Amino acid sequence: MAGQGRGLLPPITDCSRTMWQTPELSASNHTNASDVDPERLLLLLEHRSLKVGIITALGLMITLGNVAVLLVITSSVAGWSRNSRYFLLSLTAADSAFGLLVMPLNLCVSLLKDYTDGPDALCHVVAFCNATVYSTCMYTLATISLERYIAVFYPLQYSTLMTRRRTLLLIAFAWCFPPFLLLPISFPDSIIEVHFSNASLVCNPSYSTNIAYSLSLTALIFFPCSVVMTFANLRVWCAAKRQRLKMRKYGCALRSRHNVASRVLVPVMTAYYTCWTPCMATMIYNAVSGNTVPEWVEFVVVWLPTSNGFLNCIFYFWINRNFRRKFHLVLHRLALAVCPKLASSLGISISTTPFESGFLDNNNSVHERSSSVSSTCTLVSLA
Fold it and tell me: Are 193 and 18 in contact (CB under 8 A)?
């Protein structure tokens, strides 16, 4: 976000570099320890160590979660069509980029960068990568919601509307349009400045240096994706609720049946807005007012969207029973392949594999086949 921590003044720019000034001569921007109160310096170093630990832990959670997801969806999962797997693979790749690209790059810059220097080419490239991964993730979530909407409301026309070619074009758009839109960020001395923020340990554009471009990013990325996701998921949730009430009225629904729509769609949208709205609101605030936010507020709002990469593993995958069963099957096979003795000592037997595999690959349920992504498989019900 545009901001450099608590108490910072706007940047003073010359032809060669940007120096970030602070009334307190903060150690976060000056490496000369003689100008800094030792207690203040120690506090800043402690904050930095804590932030690095939080970022590292979050990166490990995202990476491990998405690796587990990747092991499962590269093979067939009952109820997931080919198009659904393409979209979910795209989401997994976008989420994995948080842990494998965004976090390592920014931590490397925070460790290697001379904080007395202004923006450099490396920081511009890192900021471009950050913004691209964030935007691609939002577009991918929007395409998944759109595919779910078509699968639920147009099940008979689904194969015509969502051909393999159109599916791949949507995925390509989600990955190619953000870099095109964000390309100016990657060039030094371009239409927008970039700085390294010691508050969030991230290379970020200084959004206040080009208000029009900054607001256009939100208008072309966050708001369209949010509208698509909100409209699609709200329509699916309302349809599922009406159908559930109708089936209950005619005695066709089981009392013990889970309310899949509320259990999945509500957490998905809640997590999306919780993770992304503070970041976008702070970006708009900084662009329009030119003011900064407190240090820890900036750190939280900058890194909060990355946690959506881990939450997606839960809401789009782990809630689904077929996914969990297939994951257990994959773990059994890996254990038997890597260490047969250990697997046998733990009671893992290959004799259970054919039964589980046959159960998981059973595609006789038409309603699961027709309604696409993971947990919406029961929205088009047996009525």
Answer: yes
pLDDT band at 4 (very low <50, low <70, confident <90, very high): very low
Residue 48 amino acid letter: R
Sorted by sequence, the CB contacts under 8 Å of residue 141 that are 6+ apart come out as 91, 225, 229, 272, 312
For the chain, the 3-state helix, strand and coil shares in percent, each to the nearest 5, are 70, 5, 25
Confidence of residue 30 (pLDDT cuts 50, 70, 90): very low
Q: Which residue has the higher pLDDT, 29 or 54?
A: 54
Contact indicator for 306, 103 with CB cutoff of 8 Å: yes
The pLDDT score that the predictor gives to residue 72 is 84
d(CA 196, CA 2): 10
Place of tokens 């900036």: 298
Helix or strand (DSSP H, E) at 93: helix 82-97
Among 124-128, 187-191, 219-223, whose mean pLDDT is lowest?
187-191
- Number of Cβ atoms within 10 Å of the Cβ of 87: 27
